């Protein structure tokens, strides 16, 4: 109880299956006494592009624009744009980050990737000498909850799409673990669009059940072996 959760949600339609998963998470975690904040990226019309508009005031080097350097310098002097400062504050306060989205092309939707690109800047989320276990966002947990288009049989080592863990490597390891965030087992709903009404209900119930004991879970072993063994 008393934990703070940020759900970063990337779906256009509240009545979608992703919308139902979001609703369940908000209700269940609130019931547990957690304070839940939602960044509904489409509703916010969140800007996914990393541009010089993300820096307020002067540039560190106006001759040649380098986004990484400019946002790092801007972060240090409090010169990032207002939307980024707001999202960073939400991240800073959260004990748990849940990312809720449909899988697009083996990855997250562009609007969510843009959130990662723009919010997790150097100085805030990591430093070159402070990455992975030394990342700047330690003591936080993350959970990727997503839906797929293809059935589970596609996403196995033997399946045409390969092990789903290969898909998780850039998201969980390359972003979250890089920033020092611990990673809980992903929550994957396979092909809800092609499932029966009954199967969809089962998927929603499974998510509710999992959330009930979420705080007792141990993070995964964040090592290449988890993804590629």
TrEMBL record:
* InterPro entries linked to this entry: Flavodoxin_fold, Flavoprotein-like_sf, NAD(P)H_dehydrogenase_qn
**EC number(s) from the headed UniProt entry:** 1.10.5.1
- Catalytic activity field: 1-(beta-D-ribofuranosyl)-1,4-dihydronicotinamide + a quinone + H(+) = beta-nicotinamide D-riboside + a quinol
Source taxon at top rank: Eukaryota
Task: List, alphabetically, the GO terms of the cellular component aspect.
Answer: cytosol
One GO MF annotation is: NAD(P)H dehydrogenase (quinone) activity
- Show where the Flavodoxin-like fold domain sits: 3-211
Query: Major place of localization?
Result: cytoplasm
Name its co-factor(s): FAD; Zn(2+)
Give the subcellular location.
Answer: Cytoplasm
Q: Which UniProt keywords apply?
A: Cytoplasm, FAD, Flavoprotein, Metal-binding, Oxidoreductase, Phosphoprotein, Zinc
Q: What Pfam families does the entry give?
A: Flavodoxin_2 (PF02525)
- Return the similarity comment: Belongs to the NAD(P)H dehydrogenase (quinone) family.
Q: What does this protein do?
A: The enzyme apparently serves as a quinone reductase in connection with conjugation reactions of hydroquinones involved in detoxification pathways as well as in biosynthetic processes such as the vitamin K-dependent gamma-carboxylation of glutamate residues in prothrombin synthesis.
The protein's assembly and partners: Homodimer.
Specify the protein name.
Ribosyldihydronicotinamide dehydrogenase [quinone]
Organism name: Rhipidura dahli
The primary gene name is Nqo2_0
């Amino acid at each position: 109880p008393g934990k703070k959760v940020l759900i970063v949600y990337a779906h256009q339609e509240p009545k979608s299956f992703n919308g139902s998963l979001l609703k369940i998470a908000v209700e269940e975690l609130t019931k547990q006494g957690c304070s839940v904040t939602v960044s509904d990226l489409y509703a916010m019309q969140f800007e996914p592009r990393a541009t010089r508009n993300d820096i307020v005031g002067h540039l560190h080097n106006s001759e040649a624009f380098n986004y990484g350097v400019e946002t790092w310098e801007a972060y240090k002097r409090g010169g990032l744009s207002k939307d980024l400062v707001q999202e960073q504050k939400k991240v800073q306060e959260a004990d748990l980050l849940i990312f809720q989205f449909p899988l697009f092309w083996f990855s997250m939707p562009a609007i969510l990737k843009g959130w990662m690109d723009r919010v997790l800047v150097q100085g805030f989320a990591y430093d070159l000498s402070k990455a992975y276990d030394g990342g700047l966002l330690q003591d936080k947990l993350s959970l990727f909850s997503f839906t797929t288009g293809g059935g589970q049989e596609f996403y196995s080592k033997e399946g045409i799409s390969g092990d789903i863990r290969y898909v998780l490597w850039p998201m969980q390891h390359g972003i979250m673990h890089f920033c020092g965030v611990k990673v809980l087992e992903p929550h994957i709903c396979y092909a809800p669009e092609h499932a029966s009404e009954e199967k969809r209900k089962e998927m929603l119930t499974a998510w509710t059940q999992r959330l009930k004991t979420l705080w007792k879970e141990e993070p995964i072993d964040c090592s290449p072996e988890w993804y590629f063994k």
